[in-house]
Amino acid sequence: MKIIKFFTFICIFFLLNISKSFSLIEVDITRGNLNPLPIAVSPLSQDNKSKKIFQKKISLDDLGSEIAAVIENNLKQSGLFNPLSKDAFLQKPDIAHLKPRFEDWSLIKAQALITGKVLIENDKLKVEFRLWDVLAAREMLALSFTTVPSNWRRVGHIITDKVYERLTGEKGYFDTRIIYVSEEGPKTQRIKKLAIMDQDGFNIKYLTLGNELVLTPRFNPTNQMVTYLSYFRNLPRVYLLDIETGTQEVAGDFPGMTFAPRFSPDGKKIIMSFAKDGNSDIYTMDIENRIVERITNHPSIDTSPSYSPNGKFITFNSDRSGFQQIYVMNSDGSNVKRISFGKGLYGTPVWSPRGDLIAFTKLHKGKFYIGVMRTDGKGERLLTENFYQEAPSWAPNGRVLIFYRETKTNDKGEGFSAKLWSIDLTGYNERMIKTEKDASDPSWSSLLSN
Amino acid sequence: MNLSNILKNTFLVILVSLAVSACASKKTSTTTLDSQIQGDVYTGTDTVEYLAKGVPDRVFFATNESILTTKSRDTLRKQAAWLRENPSVSVVVEGHADERGTREYNLALGERRANAAKDYLMTYGISADRISVISYGKERPVDSGSNPLSWSKNRRSVTVKAN
User: Fold this and answer.
1) pLDDT score, position A14
2) What is the pLDDT of residues A84-134, one digit of tens each?
3) Residues of B in contact with A409 (CB under 8 A)
4) Cβ contacts of B145 on chain A, cutoff 8 Å
5) Which of A259, A363, A406 minimises the CB distance to B104?
6) Is the pLDDT of residue A297 over 80?
7) Rounded mean pLDDT of A144-166?
């Protein structure tokens, strides 16, 4: 199974003397953005020769418009931008890309403008794009990429990342994938498969057939491996899957159930729970030499471990106080400290990629919340409340969380569904991510290209 | 390892006897006939199947708990007696949780419940090598409802013939 195709691109900086202090537009992503920046994404222009080749190679009539649509959708979903309707555009794409008539664009209230051009060069797809500051009437960014034509959606994501970074000052999260569990069938007999898709819900691929129950997939830091729980042969164990080759293997031959796996930040270890005789503790296993280390040793349930990005600490879930709460300890298991003290039960702690926050699921008075707190447990903020939702996973820039939500069934037990949702750290911009079938247990990859 | 097991079993017996005496005094308290839940534990028979005549296959638990109720212990003693009469039978004890918990915690909780049932069968003379356990967490509910009665039916451990 060849999921991640070898991908190369070349960036040519047309213009490097970009000074940020000069630009008038700036997007603040630290607050709920109620005034998204009006931006015009002009369709990328293409010549007739390239057009014919694209039609033949990837059966798309207007690749330039398709890539623009990818960018536009990304910007819109971010909640920070308001892409303007193309009907109002006055300038033709090819001319706008050479030199925009800024008066025309400011007339339709665009503050930023993206233009571009697609062409075929030595059988490769070449995409140029420029980002313009309409009010200051100047170019902010100009780049070009070369890749295989079938990679055109990724070009749209990479352009969005560059635009996002230029306008917000932070890395984007658009050239990323989500691994999740695809679900179907009645609630009492769900069929579950591992699935992977682009961050925007496109290019869904199924990685297992659904013959056995699979749960909680998570990427390694390079996004080539996934660790997950499989009930293969009715033995629930942590598995490792190589996405490119499709090879699956048991990670650690424990005499009992292993579950709740995650990679260490260096990708060398898997941290997980091992349940024996009614007690779950946390262990690590070195992937290379298979050396197993016990991290916790307590008669309570210890599970859902997650490393801090520097690998020095582990946050986890334990009911040693009598109920599910969140704890932090050193990565060798020493210095265990409880950090959740609010009302209710706390689970699924995940350390933010920035290192400053821990996202969690909270259950209080019959409602489920996704929230964040600082790593010392202070500053708890609940972002969203619902009948059932859990398992937040961070976007690589630490600004957005993805999680899953299940519906309440009716009196007859009908109407069950599970869907993926995302929400900004600000608590704004909650959105459902469309998937072919029901979905749960999402895990966000890191940026595929940097 | 052995010592800890012995200690654990002793602890369990003490716990069980304590629970028995505690419940014995409560038995006279009113039981509403129309209610199928008592103290958060399902007491009905809707979903129950039988390993043999008079030998129910499952026991039920309170929310977030793995403590066996008087009725559960009664059921498990019947299972143990049946297993003693059928020495060639091995069983799998499946532990389950309701949907009102996080997935990973529920997997651990299901394992704890299945082991509570297994330990009790062992104290009644069934050898550990005839009993394996598996936790399904909240993955295999028996009732798809989203209400307290459905959830109580789903918090269970089920003894299933393995051969």
Assistant:
1) 36
2) 999 999 999 999 999 999 999 999 999 999 999 999 988 899 999 999 999
3) 144-146
4) 409, 411, 413
5) A259
6) yes
7) 95
Is A188 in Cβ contact with B143 (below 8 Å)?
yes
A189 contacts in chain B (CB < 8 Å):
140
CATH number of residue B135's parent domain: 3.30.1330.60
Q: Is the pLDDT of residue A283 over 90?
A: yes
Please indicate, yes or no, whether residues A120 and A206 belong to a single structural domain of this protein: no
Torsion angle, alpha carbons of A54, A58, A62, A63, to 10: -90
Residue at A402: amino acid letter: I
Which residue do the tokens 């017996």 mark?
B13
Locate A384 and state its tokens: 């969203």
Q: How many CB pairs under 8 A join A and B?
A: 105
pLDDT tens figures, A213-237 = 999 999 999 999 999 999 999 999 9
- B131: containing domain: 29-161
Query: Domain range spanning residue A188?
Result: 180-444
Complex confidence, ipTM: 0.92
Q: B107 and A259 in contact by Cβ < 8 A?
A: yes
If asked whether residues A124 and A237 sit together in one domain, one would say: no
Give residues with Cβ within 8 angstroms of B102, minimum separation 6: A304, A317, A324, A347, A348, A361, A363, A390, A391
- A388–B102 C-beta distance less than 8 A: no
pTM equals 0.89
| Cα gap B21→B18, rounded to integer Å | 5
